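Regression report. Comparing outputs from two consecutive submissions.

Submission 1:
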Amino acid sequence: MYLIMNFITKLLLVAEKNAILVACNRLSKITHFAAITKEMLVEDLVRLFRDNVWKPYGLLESVIFDKILQLAVKLTKKLNKMLGIEIRLLTFFYLQTNR
């Protein structure tokens, strides 16, 4: 699944929510909307993502963020930790990552 994620911000405050997380599947064009606050913690965003997007579709092949690269990295790390996926980075000088 190829996913595009974006935030709609600067909205009027409705039921303590002032932003919307938009996640759109590029292939099927199915779009998920979730009301959030701009001050929401990364852990809360990951939990929201896990419950609304990951559970129905499974592991993603690609996620596109148009502006916030640091948030994409944090979300990916927290999601992997929450799902129990161990990250092993491959470097040129240390190729024994399969241990």
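Submission 2:
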Amino acid sequence: MSAPLSREIAREAWRNLLTDTSHAGVWVLIVTTVLSLLGWADTFQVASLVNQSTAYIVGGGATWILQAPGQIDGASCDGLQMASGVHGAGALRDTQSSLTAVALPGAPLPMYEVTTGFPQVLGVSANDGILVPDHVATRLSASPDTQLVTNSGMVKVGAVYNYPDDGRRSVFAYAALALVPASGIFDECWITVWPTSQTTISLLYIALSSQSGQYQASPQLSQLNPTYSDQMDAAALYQSRFTRFAGWACLLFGLVIGFASLLGRRLELASSIHLGVPRGALCCQMLFEASFWISIAMLISSSLIIWQAISAANDKWPVALLGLRCVVSGGVGCLIGNLVSCVTVRERRLFSLFKSR
């Protein structure tokens, strides 16, 4: 296509937009409404699933515990964090002793030993020292790297972990967890698994030591927070959400809207073809006009969807991208529908179109 012809197509398209021949304002309103509603619905649904998943993980539903006193191999338990889907693994044992801070002489902290992988299960990071729950740290005015004065001397606080009273095992809401090497035998193995997988959870039994002799008691498997009685299958919930076809729906609506945008101008288009305007040039002009109102509608819809994702979801940008998929598919559908509508105009129907105008 020559440069002069391209300039003339652009001028004619711009004149149609300025004189509202293309009814750009109406189509902006229609497309914005459709894309915003469908994109918002999918964004809201996915954001809700993300927030449910976050609450499940943070609330201890994704953390599983194998209790087998004197039967857990610390190194094997720590090694589970290398498995696919495992976000943290560590072993724990009861020392049957306590740690008394000088600031709280009448409230000794039960003392437990944990492996170096254990802090990750609690959502913190530490290489040495002790771990204390947040409300204990508040009472002691302690923070990571603080040196506590105790009956055993100065003890470094390695990390402060969040341990709310939300149904989880309460014993660690008031305790001190000392980091120790993973060698030796422990009482429990903790593991955080996400997405939930029974196969991955079963890996906990690998941590049972072969050197502990005859098991004194059967190992007990449980969730950290038993209020989450069911395993949450986030992948299944995502695949079965009722808005999963929102992208295809946007594409379909876009095709219909794009096709319909030229139905009222078929007489104009047939007349142009009759006067010798090349069909290719005419279709380029229609696409130019359509691109204008489609772009505006996509920009408005995208802004609404991004705002929705940022305000509703913990994992903001991946959720926003899912919603923007609807916007893109809808915009592409409008362009294709507009092109098909232009291509299907026939010069031989000029008279009948004139009579039915």
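Expected: both submissions complete independently.
Actual: both completed, but the second showed a warning that disappeared on reload.
Relevant detail on submission 2: Residues 3-55+237-355 form one domain.
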